[in-house]
Amino acid sequence: MPDNPGDPAVTDEEYTSPDLAETTPEEDAVVAEGADAQVAEALAGDSEDGVAETAEADIDDSGELSDAEIQLAERTADLQRVTAEYANYRRRTERDRVGIGEAAKADVAASLLPIRDDLDLAEQHGDLNGPLKAVADKLDSVLAGLKVETFGAEGDEFDPSKHEAVQDASSGDDKAVGTVLRKGYRMGDRVLRTAMVVIADR
To answer: Where is the sequence biased in composition, kind Acidic residues (predicted)?
Structure first.
């Protein structure tokens, strides 16, 4: 055994782990190139996989987009149909509302006609004066506001749809209104009450 075992001159070379061993620049270059090649290969593989996945995604997306377009067309058609139905419903509702309003006015006006008949009789007997005359004027104002008009004057052409004949005193085919026994009333194109007349020749 040496006198001084710790003397560097007599000690064995220090053991160096292969992982920690120093390499030359040439060896480093070779290792780097190998590593770069492995990385490049791995990246190339990932890139190819990524391109394939992207292509598949595009195909899938393309198929889904086609389905979406079909669904959009169907929804658009449904919306257009619903919109048309709603527009028709609104027009029908408005027409019905106007018709109901006109029918209500006609009913009110028709219920006032007997009162107007009594006032006409009072006027024929000379009793339409004072407060009764004021009532007649107000009633006429209400009927005018409802656009109620009278028809059935003597000499008018006889029309079975507007005139109710109680006697036919005519001798020819050209018939006209003779004596008016009761006035007829209409509101616009609606006949509230036919005129009661005697038919005569024109």
So the answer is: 46-65
Q: How far apart are CA 70 and CA 62, in angstroms?
A: 13
Distance CA 19, CA 77 (A): 73
Tell whether 199 is covered by a domain.
Answer: yes
Query: Are the C-beta atoms of 113 and 193 separated by less than 8 Å?
Result: yes
Tokens of 130: 């004072």
Domain range spanning residue 155?
149-202
Asked if residue 187 lies in contact with residue 106, where contact means CB atoms within 8 angstroms, the answer is yes
Assigned domain for 181 exists: yes
* Overall number of domains in the chain: 1
Contact yes or no for 175/202 (Cβ under 8 A): yes
DSSP letter (8 states) at residue 172: S
Write the CATH number for 160. Answer: 2.30.22.10
Tokens of residue 125, six digits: 């007997």
Q: Is the Cβ–Cβ distance between 164 and 196 less than 8 Å?
A: yes
Which neighbouring-strand residues pair with 177?
A: 199
Rounded CA Rg of the chain: 55
User: Is residue 143 in a domain?
Assistant: no
What count of other Cβ atoms lies within 10 Å of the Cβ of residue 194?
A: 20
What's the half-sphere exposure (Cβ side, CA atoms, 13 Å) at 37? 6
pLDDT tens digits, one per residue of 60-77: 455 556 888 888 989 999
What are 73-83's pLDDT values in tens digits? 899 999 999 99
